[in-house]
Amino acid sequence: MGTVVVALERGFQGHHVVISVNGDVVLDATNVTTDPGSGVAGSVAVDCTDECLVEVALPDHDLKSEVRLSIGELTYLRVSLEAGQLVLTPASEGPRYV
């Protein structure tokens, strides 16, 4: 078992964001906005088994993206909104602000 940290980063401007892990909603937040100074809009940490399916959705914009992750002791998933698309980037090391 390990932990996945889903970090919402660039591009969010008052969005409604829903994050699910293995089908369970772990974050349902409105008015998610990236701080221009830090580049951070928020994050959530979730305990997972060895593998998990993470889905990020912006229901008001009909956007959804998902990724299956193999979880180490601590795994990061960086999420940005770029050119109208969700970009999910798995990483073994966290960003500097975490």
Overview of the structural elements:
With 98 residues, the protein is mainly beta. The protein has one domain: Immunoglobulin-like (Sandwich), CATH 2.60.40. It is built from no helices and 8 strands. It has strands spanning 2-8, 13-21, 24-33, 42-48, 51-58, 63-70, 74-82, 85-91. The strands form 2 sheets. Strands 4-1-7-8 form a 4-stranded mixed beta sheet, with no helix packed on it. It has a 4-stranded antiparallel beta sheet with strand order 3-2-5-6, with no helix packed on it. The radius of gyration is 12 Å and the shape is globular.
Reconstruct the topology from this structure.
Layout: E1 2-8, E2 13-21, E3 24-33, E4 42-48, E5 51-58, E6 63-70, E7 74-82, E8 85-91
Parallel strand pairs: 1-7
Antiparallel strand pairs: 1-4, 2-3, 2-5, 5-6, 7-8
